[in-house]
Amino acid sequence: VVILTILDSYVRRPEGASRSIGTLLGYVSDGNNLDIIDCYTVIHNEAAGEGVSVMDVKMDQDYHRAMCKLKQTKSKKEGVVGWWSTGTAIPDSSVIYHTWYWGKDSNFVATQSLPSPVHLLVSTDVTAPELAIKTFVMQRSEPIADLVSFHEIPREIRAFAPERAGLAMLQRAQRETDAEVAKEMGETASKSEGEHSMEGFQGAVSNLVSLLKTAQAYVRDVRAGKRTGDPEVGRALTKALCSECFNNVEEFEGLCGNGMHDTLMVVYLSHLTQAQIALAEKITEQVKITQDKDKDASP
């Protein structure tokens, strides 16, 4: 959601703006891990060209505070952890923005785990083979306080289950759009919607089977002493196995059977409702016709 929000903000940027900037919201988890959960755009204006001065950079600070307050009403756990911008490089004006986010006016609270805000740089270069996403922290030089530099730090992009479902829907919509365009151009679509859906389902199942085989081979090698076990991998496997409500094949089959029965019952009730509505419409139409005939026959 964060990356898509940033890209959408760049597409909707004001005319003449070279980039978009905004605020990052998140929290520190598992010691020193920073989770960036949400973000929003902040209106800004900066002079074009090199040598940007402080007077040439403007940002709607009131809007930032209002949005931060609104976001925290939804989740008090999330707070300001940094800011983001689009582009392939860090211009001189980024130092001004980062310095402001480092202050109290931005609602950023420095902690031992997060002493300074982070800067997320998202490239919008469509000619690149992949989307470049980098994270930085700014460090000041001890001899010269005004001398600062941005240092890149490791990052990992993860998607929650609802986000993955949303991405799958976007991909499906793109395929449907491509099929409609091909149809308008007089071309025959290579695959129907049902075939695309079945292909996506088969791909997901194949990917799941491949991951299960990889995990099984890893566990087998560790138990046989062929490789050294990684505690992080073991904890991840334990978490995945313990997150489900079933423990054996019988319970899994029962769970799938109950879900199938519920689905069939919903489909049956839906069809029954449609039949009743159609029957009611026919009866109403026939009663109306009879009443009209009686009126015409009456003297």
Automatic annotation (TrEMBL):
One of its GO terms (molecular function) is translation initiation factor activity. Pfam families: JAB, MitMem_reg. It comes from the Eukaryota. Residues 163-283 form the EIF3F/CSN6-like C-terminal domain. GO terms for cellular component: eukaryotic translation initiation factor 3 complex, eIF3m. Residues 2-99 form the JAB1/MPN/MOV34 metalloenzyme domain. This is MPN domain-containing protein. It comes from Oxyrrhis marina (Dinoflagellate).
